[in-house]
């Protein structure tokens, strides 16, 4: 018994998608040739767009809430609770402020990140081929309506629920059914399935056509589709954490742990130094809160999102935020040749006809459409040539009796057509494949192979054309393609893209090797490779590769130099990707066909072609190139490196402030209270909350550092935090800042006649003490300005990147200074933060501090550069 699939396009009566085709077409008021464009537009008004409803709007309170209860925030809540219990309401409120503001900031940053990923859709609109007014149109998938007739082709994602009208396709329905083996769907199959999902005549939105060709009439779109129903039930899948984020989370926790230990350690020390228990407690909490890096992760997310956005502008759509960073650590790129290194603008350069049907065979043995300029560029070039040489292209489809499509493994295709009352087989393909199937003397074959070799040496793509007359339709491909008569050879040129040579040179200076994996002839590919600067030190043909044992392949891949893998089958890509990964390389692999999908998944970075690629390849890839251009991959690598560098920059910046903040407390404790506390708790929080955030964010937007593409790729094992970074953060900038901050503090105290042990809580010295802590606070702010400038570059001098090239940072610093000035000079804030207005001589003393801190690091970088 069959359950029938009902769909309800708003006003139309429900249709039964499994009724006979003729009835279904009538019920949907459409024809095998599709709707008219006008009718489709009208129906779109009624049925609404073919898109799934988004739940975005309703989720935000939840997301915001999540930011307030993540583990580090919880730690801060506990600290706030303790402050409350200890009776210091001001501190408790300030801590709550820190959490709320950071939560809000993190929320905004994550929303931005999500938007960046969603916006990618706009760069790569999903288009679907449909018949309208009897012609094929590529319309946006969102504009499909019930009654549209889809053209299903190998590699395409099916954009709506539909019933096959003619043809046969193999469909990967795993995303609906979980079953990964493709199933066959046939227009005239007998339908006795119990569920619509199993019906052999239906195809569903979201599934993928992996083989075959068919027409299908749409019966459900948008939320009426099967997947629409599932989508409205299931919730969103979580975003997976990248290695970078995992690393930084670990670092954040480590620092939080240190903060807790320092805080707890301060308790007895503070008490021994003469503080009351409650005062020591308050300072312990302050120290803890100041050093918990709760803003670190969202800042990274935002930096990655900014990277995704600028990569998209450059033509590389990165589908997952985390992969931005992986792309930056690429060590090997395996690239296709046609269309990626070359322009994919083919033209026939020379032809060597030997049989009179040569031009006719070229015209017949083709699936491209010269009028619509659609189809394989090789075939379009051949059709152009055939048409210019007198072939009639108009009768082709009507005369075709059989088609054995181009197979990237067999590297040839054939058709059987009616030519003037006779049946003719026409074959074209790689000469190595076609010549052995032609009857000819051995000497002749050798002469032709030598000619092919000579043409390939001039970077021509050579195809052999053959054919024969048959008395009856051959039983299958093998039978059709035997005993052929050679009709001629044809050589096509496909010039390299002009920008590729520079991109290859960039790869080389960046320590990235480029291997070419192509279906083309070895000599042709090697010649093209050389023309764009790729080494082509070794050419490994498909047959040689098949016989190459694993250790030899590994050896070839680890040896110096670059390899051209020619006559490669799609499976070879998988093997090469595997071997490279086993050798410890970070592999970016390009691909476009259905068969490339496994290799794209296996590579660290799968790169699919946006123009020439199938939906299957785009699904499997992590990066989609909107221009199919090799140079864009390299631009992506550059961007990935920049983003990773920037993450390091703000981590460095955030680390550096720990020393000047903690040092004063240590001094107080070690001196046994002879030296008063140089900073108040609320002042620390003001730095943490008010003055640090914007410059840190701005460092995430730093432009690329000179020399970015002339250093070796980062090793896989190399973390975000390095020893050198800690040395700069703590040993150099932190230490210099600490000394300067204490210097300012003591200068103000001594100027007022203070001596160690003097009482500063009341009397004549009290005002001076307030000014001294304010001077410490201001000194930290000034030192951090210097740190921010120093953090802008990792190795090179600040001069080489330019002082004003990061406007955002300048803005952040202005804000930082205005905020600090308000705290110091506005009376209500003075009362809250325990600050006092600073006299002019103190301000004058502070002014050179940024230069001193930056200068110390500049010197360090200079010394390490010299080494
Ligand atoms: N439409 C076609 N009909 C017949 N033979 C073809 C056709 N297209 C290509 N070939 C032959 O098959 C070989 C491999 O083509 P294929 O498209 O797989 O590789 P390619 O485009 O060179 O690969 P890549 O994009 O990886 O560089 C070509 O060198 C050519 O000899």
Automatic annotation (TrEMBL):
<dbReference type="Pfam" id="PF00689">
    <property type="entry name" value="Cation_ATPase_C"/>
</dbReference>
<dbReference type="GO" id="GO:0016887">
    <property type="term" value="F:ATP hydrolysis activity"/>
</dbReference>
<dbReference type="Pfam" id="PF00690">
    <property type="entry name" value="Cation_ATPase_N"/>
</dbReference>
<feature type="transmembrane region" description="Helical">
    <location>
        <begin position="808"/>
        <end position="826"/>
    </location>
</feature>
<feature type="transmembrane region" description="Helical">
    <location>
        <begin position="725"/>
        <end position="752"/>
    </location>
</feature>
<feature type="transmembrane region" description="Helical">
    <location>
        <begin position="764"/>
        <end position="787"/>
    </location>
</feature>
<feature type="transmembrane region" description="Helical">
    <location>
        <begin position="279"/>
        <end position="305"/>
    </location>
</feature>
<comment type="similarity">
    <text>Belongs to the cation transport ATPase (P-type) (TC 3.A.3) family. Type IIA subfamily.</text>
</comment>
<feature type="transmembrane region" description="Helical">
    <location>
        <begin position="91"/>
        <end position="108"/>
    </location>
</feature>
<keyword id="KW-0472">Membrane</keyword>
<dbReference type="InterPro" id="IPR023214">
    <property type="entry name" value="HAD_sf"/>
</dbReference>
<dbReference type="InterPro" id="IPR018303">
    <property type="entry name" value="ATPase_P-typ_P_site"/>
</dbReference>
<dbReference type="GO" id="GO:0005886">
    <property type="term" value="C:plasma membrane"/>
</dbReference>
<dbReference type="InterPro" id="IPR059000">
    <property type="entry name" value="ATPase_P-type_domA"/>
</dbReference>
<keyword id="KW-0547">Nucleotide-binding</keyword>
<dbReference type="InterPro" id="IPR050510">
    <property type="entry name" value="Cation_transp_ATPase_P-type"/>
</dbReference>
<dbReference type="InterPro" id="IPR004014">
    <property type="entry name" value="ATPase_P-typ_cation-transptr_N"/>
</dbReference>
<feature type="transmembrane region" description="Helical">
    <location>
        <begin position="832"/>
        <end position="856"/>
    </location>
</feature>
<protein>
    <submittedName>
        <fullName>Cation-transporting P-type ATPase</fullName>
    </submittedName>
</protein>
<feature type="domain" description="Cation-transporting P-type ATPase N-terminal">
    <location>
        <begin position="15"/>
        <end position="88"/>
    </location>
</feature>
<dbReference type="InterPro" id="IPR008250">
    <property type="entry name" value="ATPase_P-typ_transduc_dom_A_sf"/>
</dbReference>
<dbReference type="InterPro" id="IPR044492">
    <property type="entry name" value="P_typ_ATPase_HD_dom"/>
</dbReference>
<keyword id="KW-1003">Cell membrane</keyword>
<dbReference type="Pfam" id="PF13246">
    <property type="entry name" value="Cation_ATPase"/>
</dbReference>
<dbReference type="InterPro" id="IPR036412">
    <property type="entry name" value="HAD-like_sf"/>
</dbReference>
<dbReference type="InterPro" id="IPR023298">
    <property type="entry name" value="ATPase_P-typ_TM_dom_sf"/>
</dbReference>
<keyword id="KW-0812">Transmembrane</keyword>
<keyword id="KW-0067">ATP-binding</keyword>
<dbReference type="InterPro" id="IPR006068">
    <property type="entry name" value="ATPase_P-typ_cation-transptr_C"/>
</dbReference>
<feature type="transmembrane region" description="Helical">
    <location>
        <begin position="68"/>
        <end position="85"/>
    </location>
</feature>
<dbReference type="GO" id="GO:0005524">
    <property type="term" value="F:ATP binding"/>
</dbReference>
<keyword id="KW-1133">Transmembrane helix</keyword>
<dbReference type="InterPro" id="IPR023299">
    <property type="entry name" value="ATPase_P-typ_cyto_dom_N"/>
</dbReference>
<feature type="transmembrane region" description="Helical">
    <location>
        <begin position="251"/>
        <end position="273"/>
    </location>
</feature>
<dbReference type="Pfam" id="PF00122">
    <property type="entry name" value="E1-E2_ATPase"/>
</dbReference>
<dbReference type="InterPro" id="IPR001757">
    <property type="entry name" value="P_typ_ATPase"/>
</dbReference>
<keyword id="KW-1278">Translocase</keyword>
């Amino acid at each position: 018994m069959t359950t029938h699939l009902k769909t309800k396009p708003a006003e139309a009566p429900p249709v039964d998608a499994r009724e006979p085709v003729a009835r279904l077409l009538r019920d949907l008021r459409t024809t095998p040739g599709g709707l008219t464009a006008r009718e489709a537009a009208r129906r779109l008004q009624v049925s609404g767009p073919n898109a799934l409803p988004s739940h975005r709007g309703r989720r935000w309170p939840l997301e915001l809430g999540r930011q307030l209860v993540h583990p580090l925030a919880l730690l801060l809540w506990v600290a706030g609770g303790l402050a409350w219990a200890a009776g210091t309401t001001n501190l408790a409120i300030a801590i709550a402020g820190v959490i709320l503001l950071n939560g809000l900031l993190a929320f905004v940053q994550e929303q931005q990140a999500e938007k960046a990923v969603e916006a990618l859709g706009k760069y790569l609109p999903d288009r679907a081929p449909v018949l309208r007014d009897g012609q094929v149109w590529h319309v946006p998938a969102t504009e499909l309506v019930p009654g549209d007739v889809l053209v299903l082709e190998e590699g395409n994602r099916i954009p709506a629920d539909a019933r096959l009208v003619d043809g046969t396709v193999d469909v990967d329905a795993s995303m609906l059914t979980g079953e990964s083996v493709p199933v066959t769907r046939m227009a005239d199959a007998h339908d006795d399935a119990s569920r619509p999902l199993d019906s052999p005549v239906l195809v569903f939105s979201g599934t993928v056509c992996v083989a075959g060709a068919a027409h299908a009439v749409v019966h459900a779109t948008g939320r009426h589709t099967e997947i629409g129903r599932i989508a409205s039930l299931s919730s969103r899948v979580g975003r997976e954490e990248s290695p970078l984020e995992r690393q930084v989370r670990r670092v954040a926790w480590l620092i939080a742990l240190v903060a807790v230990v320092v805080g707890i350690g301060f308790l007895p020390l503070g008490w021994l130094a003469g503080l009351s228990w409650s005062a020591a407690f308050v300072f312990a909490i302050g120290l803890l809160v100041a050093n918990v890096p709760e803003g670190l992760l969202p800042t990274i997310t935002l930096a990655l999102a900014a990277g995704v956005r600028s990569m998209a502008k450059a033509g590389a759509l990165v589908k997952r935020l985390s992969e931005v960073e992986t792309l930056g650590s690429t060590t090997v790129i395996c690239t296709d040749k046609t269309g990626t290194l070359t322009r994919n603008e083919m033209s026939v350069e020379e032809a060597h006809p030997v049989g009179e049907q040569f031009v006719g065979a070229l015209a017949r043995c083709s699936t491209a459409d010269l009028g619509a300029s659609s189809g394989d560029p090789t075939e379009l070039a051949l059709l152009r040539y055939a048409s210019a040489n007198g072939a009639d292209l108009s009768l082709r489809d009507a005369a075709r009796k059989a088609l054995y499509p181009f197979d990237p493994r067999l590297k040839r295709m054939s058709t059987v057509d009616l030519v003037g009352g006779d049946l003719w087989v026409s074959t074209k393909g790689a000469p190595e494949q076609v010549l052995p199937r032609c009857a000819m003397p051995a000497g002749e074959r050798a002469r032709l192979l030598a000619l092919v070799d000579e043409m390939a040496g001039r970077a021509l793509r050579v195809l052999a054309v053959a054919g024969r007359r048959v008395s009856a339709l051959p039983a299958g491909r093998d039978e059709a393609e035997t005993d052929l008569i050679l009709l001629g050879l044809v050589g096509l040129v496909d010039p390299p893209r002009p920008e590729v040579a520079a991109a290859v040179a960039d790869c080389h200076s960046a320590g990235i090797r480029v291997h070419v994996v192509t279906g083309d002839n070895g000599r042709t590919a090697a010649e093209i490779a050389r023309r764009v600067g790729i080494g082509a030190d070794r050419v490994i043909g498909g047959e040689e590769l098949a016989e190459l044992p694993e250790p030899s392949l590994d050896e070839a891949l680890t040896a110096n130099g670059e390899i051209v893998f020619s006559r490669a089958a799609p499976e070879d890509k998988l093997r090469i990707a595997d071997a490279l990964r086993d050798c410890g390389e970070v592999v970016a692999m390009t691909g476009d066909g259905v068969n490339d999908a496994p290799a794209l998944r296996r590579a660290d970075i799968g790169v699919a072609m946006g123009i020439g690629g199938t939906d299957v390849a785009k699904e499997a890839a992590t990066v989609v190139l909107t221009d199919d251009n090799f140079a864009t991959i390299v631009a992506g690598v550059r961007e990935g490196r920049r983003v990773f560098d920037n993450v390091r920059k703000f981590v460095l910046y955030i680390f550096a402030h720990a020393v000047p903040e903690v040092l004063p407390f240590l001094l107080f404790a070690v001196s046994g209270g002879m030296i008063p506390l140089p900073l108040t708790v609320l002042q620390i929080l003001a730095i943490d909350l008010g003055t640090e955030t914007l410059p840190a964010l701005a460092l995430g937007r730093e432009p690329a550092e000179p020399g970015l593409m002339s250093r070796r790729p980062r090793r896989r094992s190399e973390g975000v935090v390095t020893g050198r970074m800690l040395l700069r953060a703590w040993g150099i900038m932190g230490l210099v800042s600490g000394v300067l901050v204490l210097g300012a503090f003591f200068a103000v105290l001594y100027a007022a006649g203070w001596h160690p042990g003097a009482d500063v809580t009341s009397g004549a010295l009290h005002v001076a003490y307030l000014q001294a802590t304010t001077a410490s606070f201001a000194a930290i702010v000034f030192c951090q300005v210097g740190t921010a400038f120093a953090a802008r570059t990792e190795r090179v001098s600040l001069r080489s990147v330019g002082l004003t090239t990061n406007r955002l940072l300048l803005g952040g610093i202005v804000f930082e200074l205005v905020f600090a000035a308000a705290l110091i000079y506005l009376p209500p804030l003075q009362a809250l933060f325990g600050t006092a207005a600073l006299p002019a001589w103190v301000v004058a003393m502070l002014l050179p501090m940024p230069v001193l801190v930056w200068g110390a690091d500049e010197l360090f970088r200079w010394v390490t550069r010299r080494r």
